[in-house]
Amino acid sequence: MSIEQGLNTRLKSDKQVESQQWFQKLIQTDQYVGDIYSINYETARVIIHDFYREKVGGIPSLSFLIATRVDPSKADIDFKKEDTSFVLLRVMDAAALPQDKEAERIRVETAQRISGETEKHWDDAGSMDLRTKNILGFAGVQCRIIGTFFLEENGHNGEKPLNLKFGSDISNYYPNRGLKVYKPNDKALEHIVNYADPSSILAHTEKYGNTERVKLGFVRYASTNRKYQAIDDVPVYIYPADLLSQKSALFGMTRTGKSNTTKIIAKSVFELRTNENPNDRPLRIGQIIFDPNGEYANENVQDNNSALKNVWQLLPNGVKANEVVTYGITRHPNDPERTLMLLNFFETSNTQIGKSIIDSILSEDSTNYIKQFCQVSFDEPDPNDRSATTRYNRRLLAYRSVLARAGFQVPSSLRASTRGLFNQDLITALQTGRNNNPPTPEYVSAAQVFSNPNPAWGQLANAFEALDKFIRDSSSNYTTFENAYVSRPNGSGDRWADEDLKKIIGIFQYPNGTRKIGKAAEQHSADTTSDYAEDIYNHLVQGKLVIIDQSSGEPELNKSSATRIMTKIFKENQRKFVQGETNISEILVYVEEAHNILPAGNDLDLSDIWVRTAKEGSKYRIGMVYATQEVSSIQKNILKNTANWFISHLNNTDETKELCKYYDFADFEPSIRRAQDKGFLRVKTLSNLFVIPVQVDKFEV
Length: 701
Description:
By secondary structure, the protein is of the alpha/beta class.
């Protein structure tokens, strides 16, 4: 034998040993339950005897089984052969056997014979002969074929260990060839439920330099979760990297574990900055949680006072509490470090930002004068264009007067100035009032205010209200004044009152106008100068966990502020992407009670920032985790772009039918609708190739 032949023989022998080791990991002969008697590409039927069913601790609905032709005790296993594989099955329901009608007849007749004898059962030795009992102990089980585990050589180096691979189907079947079926024990089940394709792990390594995984909970097949069946504590892990730049959904009724799961996910991502594995690169991921009920930002008895905001305490000594930043519209007695999410609407640099907030709050108001007001924007003109600058300053003065009337506190340092903004001919026209009639006191008062270089803001609001009436008054001198203004020598030919000014001061003619604008006053502070959206984005870039406590805000206010923050995040990361930057910050956005913020399921507006984030966020390094009680409440475009799913109890078929459109959740539809156990979820992540039923761990700090 040549040296080359010897090496090949040695390599073949090593591969056979490896193959046997893999089969012994996943298959234990004492876990045998039965044989497949019917198979196609989608389903398999297994015949199981009561003896083996009892021996392995029962076969719950939706439990995993493994089918194979290979005997794991044999040493000459050739991994290249077609039969050298494991078919993964999920138990669905009973399957009919040809003799079932006869078996049912025998059971009925036997039960009739011992009817009324409470100390006897119809299957007792004295009631049924042993041979008959043995035959009737066989039953059929219908299984869904989930896929095939098989062994494969390393594509780059044949001498490296074999890889366990998984395909989400079967490549072939023989209807007249039997397969032995086994129930995986705890160790085998742990391999199965936590299997991740090597290519997925390699992708995590290449993109993030991190393959950290964290325990989510343990395998739970059914609501009736009997202990002592040797598979009670099989851990289920998830890869936090699966969530980055992806969409993740948490669906379920109230108090079924959505928030607890969110906390575990956020905690696992937060802890990526301090990995136990020295080969993993620490990751600082910016996370932001929109918290409508204040359950993440505040301790509460319901969760044993384990607030997510305290997650920094789990990190090594020396890590500061400012790794977690909380924001809110109002102060909280137990959170003195909270940053108020307020904006100074009178600050010059914030003018358009504040106007955008008001526009967002009023976006669903169909009143004509409100729609016209929302059309006005404050884009600063060219400073060299004197006419445009004057008109801009006049509009700005009117807008600030509207804010003052609407209840926005004016900064003590901000003084109103009318210098150069009001034409003397206009002042005269106001003072003379109406054609051939005595002067109108209201118009005269307005003329006095506009003539004052530094009037009070309340006076200005009254003056602009009068000016609006003056312009609309067909019997006033305004038309005469404007005609003269337009035709004046060396003039621009433009009207004195531009359309934007009219839209602003038009608010005053309606009693509810300033009241509606006043809805945004909660987001205003006369004492701050910075933009909280900018501050929040900077926190996220630094890899901090930001919690937005929205529990004290009005729904319209919460939605508008969340949309503005999301727009800031999206636009900034998009800008970096377009400019070709390579160090774009990974950001993960959590949306609780998502039906209040995300567009409705029947809303087809693809320009919405949340829809754009769902569709385009991945390339801009933005991931989204959204939680709600209704699958149907989420726009289809967002659902179709969701990679990770965490599903607890849903109580009606409308929601479960919608869920059945995705992955293999159809298998779990009856269980999802029936089982109301808190923390009992069905989980599908990017690295997991099939749905796993999981009892999620309790979040604790």
